[in-house]
Design goal:
By secondary structure, this protein is an alpha/beta fold. It has 12 helices and 7 strands. The two termini are 39 Å apart. Bound molecules: zinc ion. InterPro entries: AAA+_ATPase (IPR003593), IstB_ATP-bd (IPR002611), P-loop_NTPase (IPR027417).
Amino acid sequence: MIKGYKAEVLSLYEQIRENETKALKARKQEIERLYPEITELDQEIGKQSLHLSRSILKAGNNSEALVFEIKNKIMDLRARKYELLVSKGYPQDYLNIHYHCNICKDTGYVGVNPCSCYNAKLVQVYYKNSQLAEAVKKNNFDNWDISLYSSHKTDMEKYSPRKNIETIYQYILKEYIPNFKNHNENLLFFGGPGTGKTFLSDSIAKDLLDSGYLVLYRTSDELIKNFREIKFDNNRDLEDLLINCDLLIIDDLGAEQITEFTITELFNLLNAKLLKNKKMLISTNLSLIDLAKSYTERISSRLIGNFKLCKFYGEDIRVKLNLIKPNKS
Ligand SMILES: [Zn+2]
């Protein structure tokens, strides 16, 4: 699924260039029809520009003077063209190609490196292709319902489920998301099933994607599939994406089949991302003790040492929602 991303992103740029070339052609035709004198100037500029590049290539005794002369001529022609355009009520760049990005001229690349606009395009393509686009229609901050959490505290916990979730949301909404660019905070959501971990992960993903960050969402099963693709199909684009995305969400860690391969690859990914300060959000139904048992000490110590731990608890919301639905309708 991800393999096609680069091609798809590049085709977005191609589309932009094609559209802009077409639009320029139409503007040129319009001017030629209405004001042929401007077209003549435009063509003369083209001729002189060609002349200029040839003169620069051709080394000679008086080439410097010639280059200077042609440059002046072009400047003069341009000034006349702009003046005429403006006097006819057009913007001065009416006969220039309009770039969406002036840095890369809509190629996506500056030399061999992706342009700063590339990531935004990647987000656009990724978002469109991801299952997140569907999930976040339901799972987003607008639909958050705190009344689903009980305000009664049990002896097991210091705070009621409601108070607890409120504290987590306050942190996410007031610190984590607004300062996303400046912090290196990794999050570990742990707690029983149906306590709202996926809902909150999806809501965070939506907010960040809408702000132009590249957020990847993987269930642990999908992540293992990705590991295999990287290892056995040598999919470097995918590896790059997993490591360098702004936020990697791994949902339901522990639900997959845990093998030696899984543990090694997960450990390598965690390390690579921690080294590069690329953020992660991991959610799991396992307790911290079970996490250590299933994933070895070295992984759980990475998680506990480098992740902010957020414990989710309360009754199973999914069960609760099913119970209250009939009354609602
Ligand atoms: Zn660009």
